[in-house]
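Saturday, quiet lab. Running sequence design on the structure tokens for the scaffold JK sent over.
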């Protein structure tokens, strides 16, 4: 099983399934994996411009800076480079590539030298201090014609050097793409690093830094989902015995129950306007259905009525539809319906088990886990053609995917290497980055853009 079905955290759901027997016939023993499956499918954006070629020499440091300030300056520079390189927008040359140049200090001459290596843009950063505060000035220049493009000045404590770099990176990305960057986004997830019999909700920066707990319930808590404004998470917890839906405010850490009046309330998904939450809720022995509730837990409405298990709802970006997993056809498959429960249709037809759908930001594709052989891989299903493409990864099972808010990357959980860890996949180039390494980490959820 996969996602909430597979997670050891959802013990109650496993009990429900065992009682009902609904999946006993639906999940046959895995067959050997066909040898002719494609190794990898890359999603390319046909409207994507060729990368901007950007020169970024080492930062200029004011004289007399202490060791701690120099360390903060180094952290700022390294973070800014990583953010810009990871955006896929820039092809960068750093100090090592630029050391072949003999710069003169004359702007016109030096611009020609940078352009001789194929660069279009020059990024320069100057670091100084004001009292005990770090000061960074950054500017971007178009080399041809030496036209000033963008300039920013940041002040803050040494501890916020990384966030200052993320902020500047997003400013640069926004200037050249007219859309926000990912540098200030966050990823929520569940982790058992605090103890074998507990999972807590954690959040980290998009690049895996600054991993920190949001809950300390000392029980099983999982399946976080971001509010559209990024200020709250809805999640599942066994805090009161049975699994219920709770919320936590990111800034204050304040928590409150949303709905806990059933033997099984799981899989929260915020509506795009933040007013409602779709959930999976038990309605009888061996059955669960999709419901919608107000953010405060009121106005509960049932959307599905089937003899199968309906779970893992995911609200579409335009707020008009909800994708979910259902066994009503025999095996778990992805379905889509209007938010009032009408216009129900099945959208996955390849693989004997599809689960845990997440929408891309445009609302035209779903990424989900799929079993086609003896393990779970990721797949992307086009909602117009209903064509599914498998994103075959390395050994292990790969589940619980979530799109980045720009649609360029996917965060997911993988069992490669033995433990369950969180990875990010760049859809355009296929590069992968491991974000977690401590304990087992599951159910990642990528926040929206920080405006």
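Result came back. Writing it out in full:
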């Amino acid at each position: 099983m996969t996602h909430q079905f597979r997670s050891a955290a959802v013990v109650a759901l496993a009990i429900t399934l065992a009682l009902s027997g609904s999946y006993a016939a639906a999940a046959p023993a895995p067959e050997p994996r066909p040898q002719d499956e494609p190794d990898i499918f890359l999603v390319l954006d046909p409207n994507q411009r060729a990368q901007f070629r950007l020169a970024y020499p080492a930062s200029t440091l004011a004289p007399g800076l202490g060791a701690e300030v120099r360390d903060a300056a180094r952290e700022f520079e390294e973070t800014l480079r990583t953010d810009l390189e990871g955006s896929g927008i820039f092809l960068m040359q750093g100090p090592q590539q630029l050391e072949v140049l003999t710069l003169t200090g004359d702007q016109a001459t030096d611009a020609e030298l940078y352009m001789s290596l194929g660069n279009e843009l020059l990024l320069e950063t100057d670091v100084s201090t004001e009292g005990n505060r770090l000061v960074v000035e950054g500017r971007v220049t178009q080399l041809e014609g030496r036209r000033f493009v963008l300039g920013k000045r940041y002040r803050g404590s040494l501890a916020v050097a990384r966030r200052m770099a993320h902020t500047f990176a997003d400013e640069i990305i926004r200037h050249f793409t007219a859309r926000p960057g990912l540098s200030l986004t966050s990823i929520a997830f569940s982790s058992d690093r605090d103890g074998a019999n507990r999972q807590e909700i954690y959040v980290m920066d998009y690049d895996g830094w600054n991993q920190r707990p949001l809950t300390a319930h000392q029980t099983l808590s999982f399946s976080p989902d971001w509010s559209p404004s990024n200020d709250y998470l809805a999640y599942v917890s066994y805090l009161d015995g049975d699994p219920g839906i709770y919320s936590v405010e990111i800034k204050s850490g304040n928590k409150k129950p949303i709905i806990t009046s059933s033997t099984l309330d799981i899989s929260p998904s915020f509506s795009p306007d933040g007013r409602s939450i779709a959930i999976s809720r038990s309605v009888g022995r061996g059955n669960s259905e999709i419901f919608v509730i107000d953010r405060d837990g009121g106005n509960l409405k049932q959307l599905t009525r089937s003899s199968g298990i309906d779970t893992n709802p995911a609200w579409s970006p335009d707020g008009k539809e909800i994708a979910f997993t259902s066994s009503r056809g025999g095996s778990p498959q992805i379905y889509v319906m209007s938010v009032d429960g009408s216009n129900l249709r099945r959208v996955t037809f390849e693989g004997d088990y599809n689960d845990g759908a997440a929408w891309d930001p445009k609302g035209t594709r779903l990424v989900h886990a799929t079993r086609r052989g003896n393990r779970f891989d990721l797949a992307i299903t086009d909602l117009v053609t209903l064509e599914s493409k498998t994103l075959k990864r390395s050994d292990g099972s790969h589940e619980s995917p979530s799109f980045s808010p720009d649609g360029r990357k996917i965060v997911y959980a993988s069992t490669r290497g033995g433990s369950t860890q969180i990875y990010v996949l760049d859809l355009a180039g296929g590069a992968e980055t491991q974000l977690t390494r401590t304990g087992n980490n599951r159910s990642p959820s990528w926040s929206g853009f920080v405006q």
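Notes for JK: The chain has a mean pLDDT of 89. Residues 52-177 form a domain with the Rossmann fold fold (CATH 3.40.50.10070). Ask whether to fix the surface positions before the next round.
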